[in-house]
Amino acid sequence: MRIRPARRIKGQLRVPGDKSISHRAAIISALAHGSSKISSFATGADCAATVACLKALGVAITAADGNLIVNGVGRHGFKRSDKPLDCGNSGSTMRMLAGVLAGQNFTSTLVGDDSLSMRPMRRIVAPLEAMGATVQSHAGKPPLTIIGSDSLKAIAYELPVSSAQVKSGVLLAALNAAGVTRVSESSVKSRDHTERMLQWFGAALSQQDTGGTYVVSLDGPQTLAARDISIPGDISSAAFFVAAAGLLPNSDLVIDNVGLNPTRTAFLSVFESLGLTVKTKNVREESNEPLGSIHVAGRQFPLQSQTTLSGSNSAQVIDELPLLAVLGSQTPGGMEIRDAEELRLKESDRIAATVKNLRAMGATVKEFDDGMSVNPAQLKGARLESNGDHRITMAFTIAALIAAGESEIDDAECVRVSFPDFFEVLESIVER
Known about the structure:
Number of helices: 13
C-alpha cells in the first residue's frame, strides 16, 4: 500500500463495531438460552474466527439484514467438534473459548495461525486447571487441548498481569463452576466488557474497585437469558483517525456512535495532554456500554511535550502505544514509553516493529526491553514493514500522512483482522 502525505482530514464517519465487544457478544449469546440479535457486529477476521468456532461447536448463527442472529444453546448445549477449532490470529477467541470449553464434558483443541501459535497461553491454562479442567499446550503456547469437566470448582485468582482476555476466560468458566469465583487485578483494571455483558444477559456478579485492586466475583453456576445487543463503534479503530485529524492543521472530523467505555478511553486524555483538540458529545448508554461522538479539530499550534508514559499509564493505552510513539516524534521533547513489555507479546513484537519503522522514517529512537524513547523528528517517506500486524500497519499509515514524501507499507492487507475497509474509509476523509 502506497501512502501519500495529506493536507488535512475532513468529514464524518463511523468505524466498524467494536472488536472486543463483538467477540463477547457472540460467545455470551451462545451461552444463553434463546435467540439474540447482534447489530453492528465487527467485520474483521478475528471476530469471524469466533463465529466459525461457535458454529463448529453446534451453535446456529445466521446473518440477516446486517445483524447477526445467535441461537443460544445454554451452558451445556455445545457439541464436540470433529476438527480443531481454528482461532486464526485471534488471542481473544482462543483465551475466552478456553474458558467456555473448560466446563464442557468433552475434549476440544484450539489452534491458530503462525502468529497466534507463538503467543503465551500459560496465563489462561493455570486458572482453568485450578478450576478442574485439563489443558495441554506446547510449552505454554498453542495449540491448546482442553479436556473439559462438568464439575468445575470456584477459585480466587489474582491475575499476574492485567488481562481482559484471561479475566474473561475465567469468568466464562465460572458460569459452570460451583461456588464464588473471584478474579482480581492489582496493577490496572483491564477492559470490563465481559462484566458488563454478563450483567446485560442477566448474570449476577459483583465488582469492587478500591485501594488499587479491582475484584469481580461471580457465584456459579448461573444460567443466562438471550437479549439483543447493539455494538458501538470500535474506539481502538477510531484512535487512528483521531490522531490523523489532530496532527494535520485545519482538520475537522466527527466519528459517530463510538464506544466510550472508561477502560478504553485513556488515550484520549493523552492526546489532549499533547495539545490535540478532542471532544466527546452525545454520550449515552446502549446494551450496558457507553457510547457517543468524538469531534477532532486539527492542531493550530505545535504539540506540547509529553515526556514519559509508564506504569499504569502505559497499561491503560497498551493498544495505542505504537500510535502514541508516532505522536511522540512530533512533540518538542519527544516521548519515552516504559513498562510496556506486553507489546512484545502481541500479534508481532510491537516494540521492535515500531522502533524499526520510526528509524526508517528518520527518527532517532532508543529501544528498551520494556519500551522505547523517541526523539522529535520531521518524518520522511519510507518503505515500512507491517510485520503482518494490523495495529502497526494503521499506526504507520498515520505516520505516512504527516511525512515528507510517499511511503509504502508491505502486507497492508493484514488490517482485515480488525478493519477491512480501513484504507477506503481513510481515503474518503483525506484531502491532499
